[in-house]
């Protein structure tokens, strides 16, 4: 009897911790009517709920305790926002989410944008300030749904080693250690160690749609400097970097080769972008959204460019723009 009473009390306590939420999504026109919208968990990628869009609207309802960061997929690009107890309103046309925590996150984003627009800062200074901003955002919101999002993005934005991540977790809420994105950050940290500058290249194999097998070793370690660009068609910085690579290739000619590796992208979209951008160097394309190459090299953001020496030794990684041009000039200029 006491055991049953204990279980009943525990259930009541659990129920009291979970509070209802309602996400109301408004679309700009009738073009999405009849489609299915999906609410997914940002950390795990799991689908939490689905709803049919009717009369330019759909709703998601459920329960949560502290809330969680989510993505809503419908038609085009996903919209990221915080699901929290109470009502959250999404305006797809404006790309905004309205609720106390979403308002707080929007205010932070607005201030962060000012850094991006500050032309007096170097790229390195801008990145350092953004990383510091993520850290501060996490520390101020450890106990709500913004905290895990800011923490995971802080780990992604800086190249921490595994010990440094473990040290950060010591002062974080215990549940942070169970986040999927934290596990991925630790895995990336391990892979960064084994694919650091001075290390021999790590090979990978990709099967193309025609069944042909493409290996990194088909291009790297063949006696010539090779610049490998990990990119995606949907990524604006990736697309902006390609003309710069083309200019460097035109400048130095046969002193180095270029290889593209299409990651996190639909193969058809990659092929379309190759035509649009007039890419003439070989590009490794799989049959799905490739993640294996970036996992292997601990790549957390794209574009990511690695310079391999003639013997396949990694000479540089993570540089772009003027920094990449300067390093390449040192190597082949």
The coarse overall form would be globular
Radius of gyration (Å): 23 Å
Oligomer: single chain
Mean pLDDT: 91
Structural class: alpha+beta
β-strand amount: 15-25%
Unreliable spans = 1-16
Largest sheet: 5 strands, mixed
Count the helices. How many?
A: 10
Number of strands: 15
Task: Report how far apart the termini are.
Answer: 83 Å
Instruction: Please list the strands of the largest sheet in the order they lie side by side.
Output: 13-12-11-14-15
Write down the secondary-structure element order: HEEEEEEEEHHHHHEEEHEHEHEEH
Helix content: 25-40%
How is the topology of this model organized?
Blueprint: H1 2-17, E1 19-26, E2 36-41, E3 47-52, E4 57-64, E5 68-73, E6 79-83, E7 86-91, E8 96-98, H2 100-116, H3 123-140, H4 146-157, H5 162-169, H6 180-194, E9 205-207, E10 213-215, E11 225-231, H7 236-252, E12 256-262, H8 267-276, E13 283-284, H9 292-296, E14 304-308, E15 314-317, H10 321-332
Parallel strand pairs: 1-7, 11-12, 12-13
Antiparallel strand pairs: 1-4, 2-3, 2-5, 5-6, 7-8, 9-10, 11-14, 14-15
Helix pairs in contact: 2-3, 3-4
């Amino acid at each position: 009897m006491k055991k049953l009473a204990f279980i009943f009390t525990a259930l009541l306590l659990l129920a009291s911790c979970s509070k209802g939420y309602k996400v109301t999504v408004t679309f700009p026109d009738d073009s999405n009517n009849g489609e299915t919208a999906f609410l997914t968990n940002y950390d795990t990628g799991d689908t939490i709920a689905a709803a049919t869009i009717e009369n330019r609207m759909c709703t998601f309802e459920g329960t949560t305790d502290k809330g969680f960061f989510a993505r809503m997929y419908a038609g085009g690009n996903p919209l990221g926002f915080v699901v929290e107890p109470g009502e959250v309103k999404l305006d797809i046309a404006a790309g905004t989410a309205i609720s106390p925590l979403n308002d707080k996150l929007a205010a932070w984003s607005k201030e962060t944008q000012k850094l991006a627009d500050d032309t007096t800062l170097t790229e390195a200074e801008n990145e350092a300030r953004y990383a510091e901003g993520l850290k501060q955002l996490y520390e101020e919101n450890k106990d709500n749904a913004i905290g895990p999002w800011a923490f995971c993005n802080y780990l992604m934005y800086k190249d921490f080693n595994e010990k440094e991540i473990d040290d950060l977790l010591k002062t974080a809420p215990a549940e942070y250690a169970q986040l999927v994105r934290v596990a991925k950050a630790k895995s990336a940290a391990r892979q960064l160690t084994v694919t650091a500058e001075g290390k021999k290249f790590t090979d990978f194999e990709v099967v193309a749609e025609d069944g042909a097998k493409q290996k990194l070793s088909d291009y790297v370690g063949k006696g010539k400097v090779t610049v490998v660009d990990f990119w995606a068609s949907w990524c604006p910085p990736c697309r902006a970097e390609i003309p710069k690579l083309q200019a460097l290739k035109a400048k130095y000619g046969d002193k180095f080769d270029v290889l593209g590796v299409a990651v996190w992208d639909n193969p058809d979209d990659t092929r379309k972008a190759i035509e649009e951008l007039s890419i003439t160097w070989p590009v490794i394309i799989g049959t799905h959204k490739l993640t294996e190459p970036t996992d292997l090299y601990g790549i957390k953001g794209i574009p990511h460019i690695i310079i391999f020496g003639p013997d396949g030794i990694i000479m540089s990684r993570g540089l772009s723009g003027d920094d990449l041009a300067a390093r390449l000039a040192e190597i082949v200029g």
